[in-house]
Q: What sequence folds into this?
């Protein structure tokens, strides 16, 4: 009995106070910590891969007129970092930030707007300008063609199909 | 309080390995998302070595503490027959002398290679369950050591592209509180259609009425606490109209709207 109490007392005396002086001194998380989501808008092309991957489905993508809006309702974020993993442009990054207390959930929201590209033929906005630019650059690089000669690159999928069909038709004649 | 102090370095370790203290988010279809880097091995071994010593100190000190014995022994007794009848799992079952553990009975993952030991205590009281949990921490440290010795190098993730819809899966793992069972029905677009969880607290809570019998109200908190219940894992709901006794089923859309109402 007494031995046990003594042992318990020794454990307590040996360790004394172990509480960290946080918040008076910062307590940075370990490297690789998944904190608040950070969106680098200069890199985002608006492909929507994150929308698909997000388990709590907090990323919403809407097209209006000439803009594509991507909204992150981070109040529902589970910090899984799936969006950062699937992002082809590495525009999403999980920061080291964890002090996110707020009295208004909307403080945590992020909204990004991207310009839409218009089809060279029917003039409908079909995807973002950045996706088209990326596609054009890639095609130019892989096919080794002069981009200005390839009009079909600036067509929406529907018009491109028609364009393709006409090309085949002409080739047959 | 000393137990919390000992636990903290483990939380830091978890944060470093997985990216978070608690919500690890490590498992994905196809594998795990992060590998344990070689430079983390010595750190893990150092932390578990340190906590092993500290744990033994604490166990050594409280094992002979008669104040604790007076409070916890012969309180909330669950006899082995009752434990079997009520199908309790995990430390609750093992504290009543029922040697069950899905890691041993149905080895999954790499558990067959590290051969976990089942810790049991025959008495079935709160003290027995406490001892089982304490000894299991030491057993877990041994398992971590053995796993680190045997862990093979290689890919941690296989690429899975499309998940076929309307497939079913059921899995069990031995969680700290006992056997946890998950059922999934896959739906279109690579998403789950149904997900059903039977957490160990669900079965363990069924034993609480038996444990409470013959004890005073003051014993109730420690008895309920001794099975370490997770109420959020266990909650089940049925909406019944009191007047008509009719059971009402909420549609998925209704539930979604209700849960998002206060956003």
A:
């Amino acid at each position: 009995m007494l031995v046990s109490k003594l042992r318990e007392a020794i454990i307590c005396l040996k360790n004394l106070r172990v509480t960290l002086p946080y918040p008076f001194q910062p307590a940075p998380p370990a490297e690789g910590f998944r904190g608040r989501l950070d969106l680098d808008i200069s890199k985002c092309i608006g492909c929507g891969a994150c929308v698909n991957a997000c388990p709590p489905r907090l990323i919403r993508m809407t097209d209006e007129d000439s803009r594509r809006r991507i909204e992150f309702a981070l109040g529902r974020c589970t910090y899984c970092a799936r969006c950062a993993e699937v992002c082809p442009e590495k525009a999403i990054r999980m920061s080291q930030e964890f002090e996110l207390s707020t009295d208004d959930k909307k403080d945590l929201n992020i909204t990004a707007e991207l310009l839409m590209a218009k089809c060279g033929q029917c003039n409908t906005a079909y995807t973002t300008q950045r996706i088209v630019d990326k596609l054009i650059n890639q095609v130019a690089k892989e096919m080794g063609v002069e981009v200005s000669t390839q009009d079909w690159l600036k067509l929406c999928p529907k018009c491109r199909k028609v364009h393709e069909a006409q090309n085949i038709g002409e080739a047959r004649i | 309080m000393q137990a919390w102090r000992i636990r903290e370095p483990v939380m830091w370790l978890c944060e470093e390995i997985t990216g978070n203290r608690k919500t690890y988010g490590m498992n994905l279809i196809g594998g795990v998302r992060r590998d344990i880097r070689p430079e983390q091995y010595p750190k893990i071994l150092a932390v578990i070595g340190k906590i092993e010593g500290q744990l033994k100190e604490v166990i050594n000190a409280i094992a002979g503490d008669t104040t604790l014995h007076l409070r916890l022994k012969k309180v909330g007794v669950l006899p082995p027959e009752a434990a079997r009848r009520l199908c309790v799992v995990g430390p609750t079952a093992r504290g009543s002398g029922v040697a069950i553990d899905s890691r041993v009975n149905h080895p999954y993952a790499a558990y067959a290679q590290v051969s976990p030991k089942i810790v049991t205590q025959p008495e079935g009281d709160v003290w027995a369950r406490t001892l089982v949990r304490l000894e299991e921490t030491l057993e877990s440290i041994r398992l971590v050591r053995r796993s680190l010795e045997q862990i093979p190098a290689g890919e941690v993730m296989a690429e899975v592209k499309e998940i076929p819809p309307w497939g079913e899966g059921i899995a069990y793992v031995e969680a700290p509180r006992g056997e946890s069972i998950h059922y999934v029905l896959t739906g279109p677009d690579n998403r789950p259609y149904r997900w059903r969880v039977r957490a160990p607290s669900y079965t363990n809570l069924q034993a609480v009425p038996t444990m409470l019998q013959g004890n005073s109200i003051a014993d109730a908190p420690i008895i309920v606490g001794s099975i370490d219940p997770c109420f959020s894992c266990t909650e089940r709901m049925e909406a019944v109209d009191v007047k008509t006794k009719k059971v009402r089923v909420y549609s998925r859309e209704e539930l979604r709207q209700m849960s998002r109402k206060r956003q």
Notes: The longest strand of chain A covers residues 110-118. Chain A touches chain B at residues 1, 3-5, 7-8, 10-12, 15, 18, 29-34, 73, 75-76, 78-81, 85, 94, 105 (CB under 8 Å). The radius of gyration of chain A is 27 Å. The CA atoms of residues 66 and 116 of chain A lie 5 Å apart.
